[in-house]
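for the writeup, i need someone to sanity check this before i put it in the appendix. the sequnce is what the collaborator sent (i think, or maybe the updated version? ugh). structure was predicted straight from it, no edits. if anything looks off just tell me and ill rerun, i have time this weekend
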Amino acid sequence: MVGIASVLHFLVDALCLCCVYLMADEMTRHSFIGMVLTYNVFAFLTQPVTGFFVDKMGQKHWMLLWSMVMLALSVFFTPRASYLGTFFVASLLGMGNSMFHVWGGKQVAVKTGNDIRALGVFVAPGAVGLTVGIFFHSWLLVYFFLLSICLLGIAFLHLDEKTHQSPAPIEGAAFSQNVIWQLMLAVMVFVVLRAYLSEDFSDGLNMEGMGIVAIGIVSMLGKVAGGWIAKGIGILKTVVVILLVVLVCYVLGNTFWLFLLLGLFAINCTMPVTLYWANVLLKGREGFAFGLLAAALILGHLVDLVNRSGLSLSSMEFTLFVWIPLIATILIEYGVLRLLGERRKKVLFSSFLINTFTNVPLNLSLLNYPEGIVCLLGAEVLIVFVEALCYRWLVGNFKQAFAYSLFCNLISFLTGVLLILVVIFVINQFRYL
C-alpha cells in the first residue's frame, strides 16, 4: 500500500506539471509566473486546511476521491482555458494536489505506525514527478497519468477494504500543548531553512536539461535514504551527521560540483525526519502535520520562483515589499489580539510565526503578479482560514480562533490600504507645490 501511494505521488505531481506547462505554451512569461504562483499557493498553502479536514473525516478515502475529481476536471478544462481560465485550472490542480498529499501522508503514517522509512519512500517520488512533468509534458502523458491515478486509487481502496488493516500505534510526544506547539513551529522553521539550502545547492548546478533531471533524482534518493539511515543508526545521530555533511558541502560547494550534489542529497535526507517528528508531535493529526510542513515549503518555492523569473530583488525592494509589511503586520495583529483580550504568551508569541508563514508568501506573490486584485482577495480569504486553524489549535475554540484570524487580517489589510491611500494623497499634494 505504501508502494501504491508512492507511485500515486509521482503520478499526481507529474500530471499537475504537465497541465501547467501545456497551458504555458500560449502564455507570456509574466502570466506564466502568475499562474505558477497560483498553483503553488493552492497546492501548498491549502494543505493545513485539507489536512485538518482529512483528520476529522470518518471515511478518509473521500479525500482521495475528491482529489481525483479535481484532477480530472483540470485535465478537461486545460485545453479550453482562456487567459483567466488558466488561473482557474491552476487552482483546481493545486487543490487536487493538496488533497492527495495530505491523504497520502495520513495513510502512510497511520498504516505503518509512522515508520520513518515508509515516510521517506512516500515523499521521494514527487521530485522526479515534477521533473518528468516539466520536460516531457504532452497530452499523451496527461491521459496516461490520469488513467493510472484512477486505476491505482481504486486499487488502493480495494486493497485497504480487503485487508481490513487496523491503524498501527504511533508514538506520541509527552509534552504539554504549549511545548508541542513551540516544537512544531521549530520544525517548520527548519523546513523553511532546508528549502533555502536546497535552492542554494541547486542554483550552483546546471539548471538546464540533464542538470534539472539530476537534481530531481538526487533529491528523491536523499529522501529515501534518509529514512533508512535514521532507522539504522537513530534519528539524532542521523541529523548530526547530515548537518555536518551539509556544512562541509556548503563551504566547499564552489570548488567542485560534486559537493553541490552531495549537499543536496544530504539536506533531502532530513525530510522523512521532520515528517516523523511532526507526526509524533501531532499524534492523531497526521494530515494537519503534513499540511503544516508543506505550507512551510512555499517560502522556499516562492523565493526560487523570484530568482528564476529574472525579477531579481534588490535589498531595498525586498525591505519595502517584504520585511516592512511583515513587521507592520506582526505589530498590528499583536495589538489586535491584545485589544481582543488575549494575554496568553503562547498565543501572542505564535502569532509572530503564523504571520511570517502567511505574510511573506503573499508579498512575494504580489511582487510577481501585482495586478491580480481578485487573486489578492482570494489569497487573503485563504489566509484567514489557514490562520484560523492555527489559532484553533492554540485556543481550543474554533469560533474564537476564526474571530481572531478574521479581525487580525481585516484590520491589518485595511490599515495597509489606508497607508497606501495616504501615501498617494501626499504624493499628489507635492505635485501641486
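Residues 401 and 408 are 11 Å apart (CA to CA). The mean pLDDT is 82.
thx in advance!!
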